[in-house]
């Protein structure tokens, strides 16, 4: 079969690889769609100097199951959780499966392929059946789960004013969820040249947009002087600004990633203290809420089709991802589609 591999900076190649036999508790999945994650782009930029497989936002069809597998069968349509919890851990047995990310997964194991391939072998536990939506839509269930975890972490309440910093796919979906959860007003921060993202933000009910390349966030005039909730999908350096525009009692939820010095943040603890703020980390590992996310797509609460601006075939992955990287005006989400 064919599988894609990547190496920094932004080198991709498709190879012929041999597929091993599956184990009794594993499932062979024919990959039908795999979307490009922001973390894939970070790794492609500077994250690896060795060739490695990649892709974790996956939908497909079950091709074969091991003799101990009973939750799925050949022919089932499935989306794949990017990680699961260990059902036997202390955290899981104490009812906090969200705190355990040591369960079975398919992440970059030696000699294994991931989502940008024709097939992938996965533990049976990561398979979630779906129907009623396309494979392309289903490939965005995993990042929708990330957005949902962020929104739940922020504890958005009816009539809150919400600010979303970073309107990539996850930020856009988080903003849409904030509206569905009862937010009075949703503000969004994004670069002014991100035309496609900004147009979709307006369509999805983000009331006012703040162009961070043209205006300082702490100089923007919010209707209530500030906001009650902040959702950050941008680098950690945006946290101090989020603190400055938060109203008393506000909650800031973040999932932005940066490495090295960029991961270090300094802010005024006195302001944080006096305003009685909370800073909460959203880390969607294990990947939860997939059935809920499938329902959100099927019901039209989040139309994931509108996020997809680029599609490509496996054999064109090098050209496709590099073109997607360069098109900052029109690109939102790129999805590989296999026949």
The largest β sheet comes out as:
7 strands, mixed
Total domain units: 2
CATH architecture of the largest domain: Alpha-Beta Complex
The chain-level mean pLDDT equals 96
Q: CATH superfamily of the largest domain, please?
A: Medium-chain alcohol dehydrogenases, catalytic domain
The low-confidence parts are: none
**Total count of helical runs of at least 4 residues:** 10
Structural class: alpha/beta
Lay out the secondary structure.
Elements: E1 2-7, E2 11-16, E3 26-35, H1 38-47, E4 52-53, E5 57-65, E6 77-80, H2 90-93, E7 119-123, E8 127-129, H3 135-138, H4 141-153, E9 161-165, H5 169-180, E10 185-190, H6 195-203, E11 208-211, E12 227-232, H7 239-244, E13 246-254, H8 269-274, E14 278-281, H9 290-298, E15 308-312, H10 317-326, E16 333-337
Parallel strand pairs: 9-10, 9-12, 10-11, 12-13, 13-14, 15-16
Antiparallel strand pairs: 1-2, 1-4, 3-5, 3-7, 3-16, 5-6, 6-8
Helix pairs in contact: 4-5, 4-9
How is this structure best described in words?
The chain is α/β, with parallel strands linked by helices. It contains ten helices and 16 strands. The chain has helices at 38-47, 90-93, 135-138, 141-153, 169-180, 195-203, 239-244, 269-274, 290-298, 317-326, and strands at residues 2-7, 11-16, 26-35, 52-53, 57-65, 77-80, 119-123, 127-129, 161-165, 185-190, 208-211, 227-232, 246-254, 278-281, 308-312, 333-337. Strands 3, 5, 6, 7, 8, 15 and 16 form a seven-stranded mixed sheet that branches. A six-stranded parallel sheet has the order 11-10-9-12-13-14. α4 packs across α9 (290-298). It is globular, with a radius of gyration of 20 Å. The chain starts with a strand and ends with a strand.
